[in-house]
Amino acid sequence: MKVKEDRLSDVTVCSLEGEININNSPELRKIFEAIIKKNDKKVLLDFTQVSYVDSSGLATLIEMFQRLKKIGGHMRMCGMNEKIRNIFEITKLHKLFDICDTKDTAIKDF
Amino acid sequence: MIRISEKIPSKLELVPGFSLSLIDKISSLPLKEEEFFNIKLCLDEALVNAIKHGNKLNPDLPVEVDIEADDNSITLKVKDQGAGFDFQNIPEPIRPDTIHKVSGRGIFLIKSLMDEVEFFDYGKVIKMVKLIRKGGRR
Q1: Using a CB-CB distance cutoff of 8 angstroms, which residues of chain A are in contact with residue B34?
Q2: Given CA atoms B124, B77, A89, A28 in this order, what sign does their dihedral have?
Q3: Which of B48, B64, B71, B128 lies 20 to 30 Å from A32, alpha-carbon distance?
Q4: Ramachandran area for residue A70 (φ above 0: left; ψ -120 to 50: alpha; else beta)
């Protein structure tokens, strides 16, 4: 898994690439912790290049969502393919998370 | 007819590569790409549960995987060496009081994505069945 971090005005954009699985979820958690330490409050996770997410990946995303919420921040996601979107729908996490179809839509009015 | 029997040491870092190698071995089945994706996800979740909760991360204890497939279905069995668990009382992680919980989605995903799921031997064995629908194509 690769993570590229950019800044678009006041939004931190994390472009994720590859699989989010049991092996690299701890690494992703560390990246999220660093973002929270910087006090970045608007975080967009771009899933365009993500090919796979397992339940450990979902757990890491829920943790990030909750930690950001605690400091008054907000997490948004975009660019999921149908297979991954289905995992969020089955687990009803699409109702908990703020998921947009495209990066442009996600950035708008963030 | 496909028959596969393999073992994996209880090391979580081996799971993604191991399950991918098994998916490669069944890649001739007439399943759609998303069905292979979902079967791999279920296999990963079952293996992680078996290693973490069943074998308690003891690398000396293997997890056994048996796969059988024909024109109609694919059956995957994952067996650990642990003490089993109460598989009849697994909280659903989609209720308002559980949706915020960080963990506990593995078995729920398996039950949602597979056509049949059964536990045997006090929960030490999970059997997952995916039916192969006619006209399936990658």
Answers
A1: 82-83, 86
A2: positive
A3: B48
A4: alpha
**Window A:1-60, CB contacts with B under 8 Å:** 19, 21-23, 52, 54-56, 58-59
Beta strand spans in chain B (E) = 2-9, 62-69, 73-79, 116-120, 125-131
Ramachandran assignment for B48, one of left (phi > 0), alpha (psi -120 to 50 degrees), beta (any other): alpha
What pLDDT does residue B134 have? 74
ipTM, 2 decimals?
0.94
Token pair 């001739």: residue:
B28
Task: Tell me if A41 sits within 8 A of A73, measured CB to CB.
Answer: yes
pLDDT tens figures, A44-80 = 999 999 999 999 999 999 999 999 999 999 999 999 9
Non-local (6+) Cβ contacts of B38 within 8 A are A83, B113, B114, B130
CA distance B91 to B121: 20
Q: What pLDDT shows up at residue B133? A: 87
pTM: 0.95
**CA B11 to CA B14: how far, in whole Å?**
6
Query: What phi, psi does B75 have (nearest 5°)?
Result: -120, 130
Nearest one of B114, B10, B130, B131 to B61, comparing CA atoms: B10
